[in-house]
Design goal:
Number of domains: 2
Structural class: alpha/beta
CATH superfamily of the largest domain: Aldehyde Dehydrogenase, Chain A, domain 1
Number of helices: 15
CATH architecture of the largest domain: 3-Layer(aba) Sandwich
Distance between the termini: 68 Å
Strand content: 15-25%
Bound molecules: nicotinamide-adenine-dinucleotide
Largest sheet: 7 strands, mixed
Number of strands: 20
């Protein structure tokens, strides 16, 4: 398979060229380097129709065979990790080793998810009857994916949806379509035609997908603002939705922390993928006893690490992925600057492309935009606190509730704090962790529903309850 050229959609197991083209820009240069197909309404109709036609056969395929297909697909992805990784770096910007890391992680996730089983729950088993709850596929799933983890987050949807017996139409972000298109091409060998369709396009395609009458469920990852539109659109046909949305995650550093031991990890948890991570630390609350020491250490790291073209050896952090996001983050920086906030910046960055220096904001007011908004870019506010109850209240004072972290040398004390954080996930002395067997869900405006684990798998099913009598019906 040629990863450098020939980006086509996969509809009904075959190439589909689309009705036009969308430029794909390398964020390290700001220049287009490839084009992806632009799906029109007819392409979307064809993809949904193919998924609908493939549904009866796929849902009737024994789960063991669906599992085997996903494991074979996962192995094929792993075997192409280098090629996918190089393409990933060009379209997404992340340094190559970390890009290959996402592909390998995606392959692992596909195979690990495939090992889950669909339970049959027995809610009553008496002399008179047995009540069994079977978990049936929802139907045709429309999967909509963002640009920050374009490969892994597609697999978070594709793997459980297919394992549960659904068929899928997946749409990558217009900014990062290429790896998904190649994924569609690669997986044709392992899946019957129509089971997995991959379509790409411009900004118009997402709303077209959510409004399409032919799908039964929308699995969406993206911003909270878009998530609300998705839900509104899905409501017209009462389509099922799973929404994984934005976050403004707080981490709380307790006074007993060993600053030298934790600084690198805290830094990585905030700036990995140039801070374009839904579950990145976006507000770092540090106890006043250790504030100066940790701030200085984090600033040292920012001055040491290299931000550059992900295709160049030595780059540790890449550019912002796309121009609109670059402008948003620059506006936030400008707002911080014009309000007189203290910015502690890292090394200089390339002048071409969408690069922004890694930036720490030294104790800004709680109500400043850099604290209140999800930056989704490399601006990390550090906030000083002295009172534990007060800092927990500040951490929780957000419309978001995706994840958070607590750092301390005393694990019991950290757990006690973690239990008071109003988010779907809280890490203790770690961050950015997820597993295929652990539910991931945002509370408040960070989402609706669950991904991963058994709960995530069941989101792609609906119950069918059988009431089975044990005594024959009495003769009339
Ligand atoms: P986005 O909401 O702009 O776009 C996400 C996807 O939705 C893209 O494929 C886009 O083309 C599509 N889309 C845009 N408008 C649409 C509409 N009206 N109807 C249907 N689809 C539409 O998000 P983004 O900028 O790509 O991603 C960044 C955001 O995603 C951040 O807020 C981040 O926190 C969030 N995110 C959340 C998670 C999570 O699991 N909770 C993971 C990654 C990213």
């Amino acid at each position: 398979m040629d990863f450098e050229n020939g980006y086509v959609m996969t509809i009904d197991g075959a190439d589909a060229p689309g009705e036009g083209q969308v430029d794909v820009v390398n964020p390290a240069t700001g220049k287009p380097f490839a084009t992806a197909p632009r799906a029109g309404a007819a392409d979307l109709d064809a993809a949904v129709a193919a998924a609908r036609r493939a549904l009866p056969g796929w849902r009737a395929t024994p789960i063991a065979d669906r599992r085997a297909a996903l494991i074979a697909a996962g192995n094929a992805i792993a075997a192409h990790a280098e090629q996918f990784g190089r393409l990933f770096t060009r379209e997404q910007g992340r340094p190559l080793a970390l890009a290959i890391g996402e592909i390998k992680h995606g392959a692992y996730w596909m195979k690990a998810t495939a090992k889950l089983d669909l339970p049959v729950d027995v809610t009553e088993d008496t002399e008179q009857r047995r009540i069994e709850v079977h978990h049936e596929p929802v139907g045709v799933v429309a999967a909509i994916v963002p640009w920050n983890f374009p490969f892994l987050l597609a697999i978070w949807k594709i793997a459980p949806a297919l394992l549960a017996g659904n068929t899928v139409v997946v749409k990558p972000s217009p900014f990062t379509p290429l790896c998904s298109l190649k994924l569609g091409e690669l997986l044709r060998e392992f899946l019957p035609a129509g089971v997995l369709n991959v379509i790409s396009g411009g900004d118009e395609l997402g709303p077209m997908m959510t409004a399409h009458k032919g799908s039964d469920k929308i699995s969406f990852t993206g911003s909270t603002a878009t998530g609300k539109k998705v839900m509104e659109s899905a409501a017209r046909d009462l389509k099922r939705v799973t929404l994984e949305l934005g976050g403004n995650d707080a981490a709380i550093v307790l006074p007993d922390v060993d600053v030298d031991a934790v600084a690198e990890q805290i830094f990585f948890g905030a700036f990995y993928n140039t801070a374009q991570v839904c579950i990145a630390t976006k507000r770092l609350y540090i106890h006043e006893d250790v504030y100066d020491a940790l701030r200085d250490k984090l600033h040292d790291i920012a001055r040491r690490v290299v931000v550059g073209d992900g295709a160049q050896q030595g780059s540790e952090y890449g550019p912002i992925q796309n121009e609109p996001q670059y402008r948003r983050v620059m506006a936030l920086l400008e707002d911080a600057r014009s309000n007189g906030l203290t910015l502690l910046q890292g090394r200089d960055v390339p002048t071409e492309g969408y690069f922004i220096p890694l930036t720490i904001v030294d104790n800004p007011p709680e109500d400043s935009r850099v604290v209140q908004e999800e930056a989704f870019g490399p601006i990390l506010p550090l906030l000083k606190y002295s009172d534990l109850d007060d800092v927990i209240a500040r951490a929780n004072d957000s419309e978001y509730g995706l994840a958070g972290a607590v750092w301390s040398s005393d694990i019991d004390a950290a757990v006690a704090v973690a239990k008071r954080i109003e988010t779907g996930t809280v890490w203790i002395n770690q961050n950015l962790q997820n597993t295929p067997y652990t539910p991931f869900a945002g509370v408040k405006q960070s989402g609706i529903g669950v991904e991963n684990g058994m709960a995530g798998l069941l989101e792609f099913t609906q119950p069918r309850t059988l009431f089975i009598p044990k005594v024959p019906q009495a003769a009339e």
